[in-house]
Structures are given as structure tokens and as C-alpha cells.
Specification:
Strand order of the largest sheet: 1-2-9-6
Strand content: 5-15%
Radius of gyration: 28 Å
Number of helices: 25
Bound molecules: protoporphyrin IX containing FE
Number of strands: 13
Low-confidence stretches: 400-417, 518-548, 610-623, 656-661
Structural class: alpha+beta
Shape: globular
Length: 661
């Protein structure tokens, strides 16, 4: 046998000198054929269960599948358009991965209550931010890891604890106010020509508000949640938010581009790409910051058992298998995840609130009137930072360092220079008072419905066995995507969803809950079939009594739903309420013409509000529509935000001014 083998691999074989090459080639072909048979055939004959029964938009590209249509910054609008055409459950193919998009609140609630496994996208984000293998409870695919951290840290977000964290929020808000007021000093008289268009009185000024907001929220998270005395003193604090945001942007690109993700991880990438090298440096800096924070928390004395503040919960976190206390290096992914989750979502939500306030000046005035009437952030709430500044200077002299103000990303430290203000916690409204303001909360809810900062979050992967869903049996390994944006904007769930209407929340306190309508509708429309004909579409049985007896399904879920919903929502919504109330009580906000959604669009929107006519509801909404212009400004990502937010602020004369007495 050996002889015949060597014959076919030697130049004395049937093809002469080519024999060995041909033999190798034939072997290779054999391997490829074997692989095709073992891997490909099962794929072809894999049971698809009821997947094929779901409608699907036309595939944009043979290889990319529907991903091709989603390669745009506002892809949530494309999916919304499909929802309108193909119903509340339909399927997409992203490369080779089947994804089921769900905008039916009952089925979405069923998925989030019963399917725990997140997709790899979550761990990808964690690893870009924290380094290879460094995943937090957010990104882990290990349920024991998730359960351990969630169970230990969830008590940290009780309302009792949020009241404790609130002092840190007010300190950070004082710096935001200082930085905005400084813009007034610098920009006074600039852009005065805009006054008439914006209907403001007195002086107004232009401000790029995202960076100061992000900085404020980062401080609120570190000083509030982790009880760090003054985050501005931490080495690397000034660059932390920009570094995290640039890494998040990279992670977002990798989510849509697997080749980029693979390349990013290769050892050659930082040598050949300046961008990758910068990302690696940013990751090192961010990790070093979080590790120092973790070390600071762990260095504190053992907390008493009744202490459930976040630092204490993290302090008592143990390794899920060894049961040992964690080192700072082991704890940094969780600290980093809480830091990032805490500031980016809240900053973008406040940004969207200011955007909505600019588009809907009448509603903005209603909220401002409510705040004025309730005396929220009124007289005495804002005080000069003078005495504190002096005290800090003394302390700094004591520590032998100069208390010099440093201009930081997003507006400067605001200490040691004139005009710095702070909020007096004795006079500022507390979390409970803010929660009781109907118009403020209706305004925030309506903004989070129309512009959720987690528009595309909450993806899950179906388990290793087939899953029953909405009366259908789906194969294992399918991505189940309860799309928050679709739930919030579907005409099946909301009347005139594109309209900004506070009354939804004022008239009906339960309006976020889905109204049960019997069987769930799964459209079996063919492409191009209109929504109006959906009534004749195939009805499939609903999720069944078990699911309907479960947690109340919501058509409003900015904080997700089920066991993996937002653990920090009490803190998040409190921070958002406090910041929106502070800003709208003191300033009248409008969009700068650079935003491309100027007074004309705002006026059209206001007119729409008046007439109840609404804004165009098609995917792009027509070239001039507000929806289209908003979509053009939107960057859909792990945290969905505006590409930029440039505002014109004018003081509410006599409404907040003069408090700094
Ligand atoms: C307005 C602000 C916020 C919004 C809109 C928001 C939204 C969300 C959503 C939708 C999820 C669920 C994702 C999923 O289903 O996979 C989530 C998860 C999470 N959020 Fe938030 N969030 C906000 C603020 C915060 C804050 C302030 C913190 C804490 C500091 C936080 C910490 C977390 C964590 C740790 C998770 C993962 C929970 C788990 O895996 O069990 N979030 N958030």
C-alpha cells in the first residue's frame, strides 16, 4: 500500500511531474467536499420549524442578507418601515443569522421574561472597553456570572439608596450649570439675531451641550453611586468620557462588521493601524481608571450587612465558583460597566429631552410653568460656590497643591474662578418631589418613547432547543429582537405614534401597558401588501395563558423588561428628572440653525400638535418632514444619540435669575 501511495505522490505517477501536485489538489478537493457534506447538508436540511411562516422583507444582498439595508446610521427607521409592512413579528437574515424582529408587546414580554441569553454583541462591547476576556454581567454569556453580580448589586438601586446618591447628582449638576453660565459670559450678544426667531427675551447663547452633559453624568455616577468624594480630582477623569465614547463608537462599528471585529483582535492590527493602536491605548487608560476605582472601593473597611450602597455591594461580591474576594483587576469590568451604563444612557436621554423641548416649545413652556409653580429649583436652590471654593483652596494649600482651575472637556472644573455656582441640597427638589410632577414626567416619558436611547437594545438568542413563541416553534440559535423603537413607534401599539403628545401620559396613567387584544397577530403579508389588509392576515395563537399571567407586557420599555432589565433605572430616571427640571426651569431651549431642524420645523411640529395632524409616518417621512430630519441626525447604536446637539439657550427672565444671591 505504501508503494502505491508513493507512486501516486511521485513524478513517476500517471501525470508525470504533475502527479504530486494533482494528488495534493485532489486531496484538498476531497476535504472540501467532506466538509460541505458534513456541515452544509445539515444546514440545508436543518429543521426551520415555523421560521419560514414568518414574513420577511426582500433580501437586499445575497451574502449580507438584510444587513445591507441596515448599513446606515438611522437603521431603526428602516426596521420600523418593515414593521409597518410585515407586521409585528417578521424575520430577517443578517449574513447567515436568522433574526426575528418583535414589536408585539405580549411576545416581546414573553421573550424578555423567558429567554435570558444575550447575543455576542454585548460581550463584544465589553471587550472593546475592557480588553479580551474582560466581560461584565452585561456582556457575559455565563448565566452564573450574571446571576451572581445581578443578585449582589441589585439592592444598590432601591429608592432609599438613590436618595443617598442624590447629593452626588446635585454636585455634578452644579458644575453643569457653572459651565453653561460661563458660556453666557463668553457668548453674550453673540447670535442675538436669533432672538426673534426663537421668541426669547433678553440674551441668548449657543452651546454644544453633549460634552458638558456627559461630564456631568459621569461625575454623578462616580460621586453618587461610588461615593468618590470629588471625581474631578481623579487622574484621568477629564479624558474618561471621551475615551469611553470613542471605544463605544468602535464597538458599534464592529457589531455591524464582523471582519473589522476579527481584525481589531489580531496582534498585527495595532502595528498596522493607527486607529487600532489609539483604541488599544484608550482601553488601557479606561481599564486603569476603573481598576483604580475598584481598588478604592475594595480598600474601604468591610461594609455592615445592612449597607446596600453600590460600593458596599461590589465590595462583598465574590467569585462565583471559588467564592473568593475579588481583586481590583477582577472587579474592574463590573465597575467599568456601571460607570459606562450610568453616564452614557442618562446623558443621551437628557440630550433627547432638550431636543424634544426645542421642537415642541408649547410643551416646553407647560413643563416650565409646572416647575415654576412647584418652586422646583427656584429661589435659593442655586448659590455661589464662593465659600466652598475658599474651603477647597485652604484644603489644597494644606495638601501642598495649587487649587488651580483646569479647563476640562465639556466646560472646565468651575472651581476657583468667578461665577461658579452649586445647588443647595436643602432647597433643591428631592427625587420624590420630582417623581410627583405630572407634566415633567409625561414630557420625559414621551421623549423616551419617541427617542429611546436604547432604541435597538434587548437582543436575545433562543436556547439550544426549539422555542415556542407567539404560537410558533422557532429553531434553536435564532436571534430574538424585541425592538424597543418598534414597540414605541408601531401604529399597532400607539395612536399616531409619531406625534409628541403629553396627554397620552396625563389622561391614562396605565398607558404604558399593552391592552390585551386576544390572539396575537402574526402577519403573513407578502412583500408590498399594505397594512390595511393586515386584518385578513393569518392569526396565530397568542403566547398562551402562562405568558399572559406573567409580568404585564409593556408597549413602553425604555429600561427593557424581564430579569435582565435595567437594574439602574431608579437612579437613571432620577438623574434625568433632576437635570431636565434644572435646565428647563432656568433656560428656554431651542435648536441652533446648524442642526438643520430650525424654527420652521419646530413651528410645523407645534402646528401639528395644535391640529393633532402629526408628522409624516413613512420611513423617511418625506424630504422636509421632522421625522426625516431627526432620523438624519440620529446615530443608532448601543446608546442611540444625536450626532450633535447644538442649542440656543436663553434665560427665563425673572424665573430663575437672581437666585444666586
Ligand atoms: C435613562 C437611562 C437608562 C436607560 C434608558 C437604560 C436602559 C437600559 C436597558 C434597555 C437595559 C436592558 C438591556 C437588555 O435588555 O439587554 C439596561 C440594562 C442595564 N442597565 Fe440601564 N439604562 C439607563 C441607566 C442606567 C444606569 C444609571 C445604570 C447604573 C448605573 C444602568 C445599569 C444597567 C445595567 C447594569 C444593565 C444590565 C442589567 C443586567 O444585565 O441584568 N442603566 N439599561
Amino acid at each position: 500500500m505504501w508503494d502505491s501511495l508513493s507512486f501516486y505522490y511521485s513524478s513517476s505517477g500517471p501525470a508525470g511531474a504533475w502527479t504530486p501536485f494533482l494528488a495534493v489538489l485532489l486531496n484538498l478537493l476531497g476535504v472540501i467536499l467532506a466538509l460541505a457534506l458534513t456541515k452544509g447538508l445539515p444546514l440545508l436540511f436543518k429543521p426551520t420549524y415555523d421560521l419560514r411562516k414568518l414574513p420577511s422583507p426582500p433580501v437586499g444582498d445575497l451574502i449580507l442578507g438584510h444587513a445591507k439595508s441596515l448599513l446606515r446610521p438611522d437603521y431603526h427607521r428602516v426596521i420600523l418601515d418593515w414593521t409597518r409592512k410585515y407586521g409585528s413579528i417578521f424575520r430577517l437574515r443578517i449574513l447567515t443569522q436568522w433574526t426575528v424582529v418583535i414589536t408585539d408587546p405580549w411576545v416581546a414580554a414573553q421573550v424578555l421574561a423567558t429567554v435570558p441569553r444575550r447575543t455576542h454583541n454585548y460581550s463584544l462591547v465589553d471587550e472593546v472597553l475592557g480588553g479580551p476576556g474582560k466581560v461584565s454581567m452585561f456582556g457575559t454569556l455565563d448565566e452564573a456570572h450574571w446571576r451572581n453580580v445581578r443578585k449582589t448589586t441589585a439592592p444598590a438601586f432601591s429608592m432609599t439608596n438613590v436618595r443617598r446618591y442624590y447629593g452626588g447628582v446635585l454636585s455634578a449638576a452644579g458644575e453643569l450649570l457653572t459651565s453653561l453660565e460661563r458660556h453666557l459670559d463668553q457668548n453674550l450678544d453673540r447670535d442675538r439675531h436669533q432672538l426673534e426667531a426663537y421668541g426669547g427675551g433678553g440674551c441668548c447663547w449657543v452651546v454644544d451641550v453633549e460634552a458638558p452633559l456627559q461630564r456631568m453624568m459621569l461625575r454623578a455616577t462616580l460621586e453618587g453611586l461610588f461615593e468618590v468624594p470629588d471625581a474631578r480630582d481623579l487622574p484621568g477623569f477629564d479624558l474618561l468620557a471621551p475615551r469611553i465614547l470613542s471605544l463605544m463608537a468602535e464597538a458599534n462599528r464592529q457589531i455591524t462588521d464582523p471582519i473589522r471585529a476579527a481584525w481589531f483582535r489580531s496582534p498585527l492590527a495595532p502595528l498596522m493601524s493607527k486607529h487600532v493602536a489609539e483604541c488599544r491605548r484608550a482601553t488601557r487608560e479606561v481599564v486603569a481608571f476603573h481598576t483604580r476605582t475598584a481598588a478604592r472601593l475594595l480598600a474601604r473597611p468591610d461594609p455592615s450587612p445592612d449597607n446596600t450602597l453600590l460600593w458596599a455591594c461590589l465590595h462583598r461580591l465574590r467569585h462565583p465558583t471559588t467564592g473568593r474576594k475579588l481583586s481590583p483587576t477582577q472587579l474592574h469590568p463590573e465597575v467599568g460597566m456601571y460607570t459606562t451604563a450610568g453616564f452614557d444612557t442618562t446623558a443621551s436621554t437628557v440630550g433627547w429631552c432638550l431636543y424634544a423641548a426645542s421642537l415642541h416649545p408649547q410643551q416646553q413652556e407647560r413643563v416650565a410653568a409646572e416647575l415654576r409653580a412647584a418652586g422646583v429649583f427656584g429661589r435659593g436652590a442655586v448659590v455661589p460656590e464662593q465659600r466652598e471654593e475658599e474651603r477647597e483652596a485652604q484644603e489644597a494649600r494644606g495638601r501642598g497643591r495649587a487649587a488651580e482651575p483646569s479647563e476640562a472637556a465639556g466646560g472646565g472644573k468651575g472651581r476657583g474662578t468667578g461665577g461658579a455656582v452649586r445647588l443647595d441640597p436643602r432647597v433643591a427638589p428631592g427625587p420624590d418631589e420630582l417623581a410627583r410632577l405630572p407634566l415633567l414626567n409625561a414630557f420625559i416619558n414621551e421623549t423616551m418613547r419617541l427617542y429611546p436611547s436604547t432604541a435597538v437594545s434587548a437582543e436575545r438568542t433562543s436556547p439550544d432547543h426549539p422555542v415556542r413563541l407567539g404560537g410558533l416553534t422557532l429553531p434553536p440559535g435564532v436571534v430574538l429582537w424585541p425592538l424597543v423603537y418598534g414597540l414605541h413607534m408601531s401604529e399597532d401599539n400607539w395612536e399616531q405614534p409619531e406625534e409628541f403628545r403629553l396627554e397620552r401620559w396625563l389622561d391614562d396613567p396605565h398607558c404604558a401597558l399593552a391592552r390585551p387584544t386576544g390572539d396575537r397577530v402574526v402577519s403573513e403579508q407578502q412583500p408590498g401588501q399594505s397594512r390595511q389588509r393586515q386584518g385578513q392576515a393569518g392569526r396565530v395563537p397568542g403566547p398562551g395563558p402562562a405568558a399572559e399571567e406573567g409580568p404585564a407586557p409593556r408597549r413602553f420599555m425604555p429600561f427593557g423588561e424581564g430579569p435582565k432589565n435595567c437594574v439602574g433605572q431608579n437612579f437613571g430616571i432620577t438623574v434625568v428628572r433632576a437635570t431636565v427640571a434644572l435646565l428647563l426651569s432656568r433656560y428656554r431651549v431651542a435648536l441652533h440653525p446648524d442642526m438643520g431642524v430650525g424654527p420652521a420645523a419646530a413651528a410645523a411640529a407645534a402646528e401639528g400638535e395644535g391640529k393633532g395632524s402629526g408628522i409624516s409616518s413613512s420611513c423617511n417621512g418625506g424630504s422636509g418632514s421632522l421625522a426625516a430630519r431627526t432620523a438624519a441626525l440620529t446615530r443608532v447604536a448601543v446608546v442611540t444619540k444625536l450626532a450633535r446637539l447644538r442649542l440656543v439657550l436663553s434665560r427665563r427672565e425673572g424665573e430663575g435669575e437672581g437666585d444666586e444671591a
